[in-house]
Model the fold of this input.
Amino acid sequence: MNKPVNCRFFYGDYFRGKNKEECRLLAANPENKIAWKRSHCDSCPVPEILISSNSRELALEATIVRKFLRSQVEVTFAVCTRHMIELSDPRYCPQCAAEQNQRKGEDA
Done:
């Protein structure tokens, strides 16, 4: 039994015996050549990135890459849609951090 998926890009349709599951993040990337399997969700970094990022308005692009003997999901592109800047690290947006520090300064 697979563990539950807590990701906004995972879609599962089980109505009336259907068993359709997909990752909509990977389905949106036309450059993804490797087919998605449910086991990719177990090691996917996307849910952790969405939780730990300081940007609440994050747009991601991901692909499945082969590493050694396994295939795994890798984030290839990240953008903070609030400030429209490309992020080298999807967990940190410098302008969102500056806004958060400014709000903390106003509260003090």
